[in-house]
Amino acid sequence: MLEKTKHKAKYILSNTLTLISGKYSKSVKYLKSVKDIHKGERCFIVGNGPSLTPEDLEKLKGEITFSSNRIYTLFPSTSWRPTYYAVFDESVAAADGVAEGINSIDCKMKFVRRQGYYEAFKLLNEPVCFVKTYYSRKYLDNPRFSTDASKGIYTIGSVTYAMLQLAVHMGFKEIYLIGMDNRYAFSILKDGSIVENKNVTSHFAADTKQKATPVATWEMDAGFEYTEKFSKENGFRIFNATRGGFLELFERKNLDEILNNNRGVVL
Q1: Which end of the chain is more exposed for a tag (fewer CB within 10 A), N or C?
Q2: Containing H/E element for 238?
Q3: Is the pLDDT assigned to residue 132 strictly greater than 70?
Q4: Could you tell me where the DSSP H helices lie in 126-187?
């Protein structure tokens, strides 16, 4: 009960502080300004799976990319930098050294969850956009997908779901996923049980703490399955260009063939 009360207090405080400081109104204004700014273009959403390599990131230079969380740990091995960055889990941003890593990212905008301002995101330097988010367990059975991030986005499964909505908000018609292995050392099943996937590395820069953290991949799949259906009904497409991995909810494409074809996909 005490933890729940603390969480609610931080939530209210975050909303109040972003409101009083003008950070939220500034963020909404920014989101409105980038609505359909990339209309008809393609982008790449970079996951943090073990298949992600500095070599592939080098190939993405010149492309519009989204990345998240601890992607900066690969920077010493590549000159690639993301166009946009997102971190929606305040526990990630609050971890030792992470805020400094995020602040080192040179990108057009860093998107964060407005509700996590007090706990973690107040540590981040500009440019930062505070996005209103909606979360409910009911969305796992009845997902929602926002095409207007200025009014808020839905959080289901992982930060990737947030980045997909931001990409659609900006007007991208072709969205390619890389580094989305969708398999972790420990998975939480829908019934709450935890399964160990032996000989599986969770992240490209896996450390002991990351590997030991169970991930509810079924929640991610619920969001991805809905997004695939929603994309076909709303004039944009999502393709999985990950090398290997276990994500089969999106049509697969070969990364090298995509990058050699500047014309993109005809919808």
Answers
A1: N
A2: strand 237-240
A3: yes
A4: 159-169
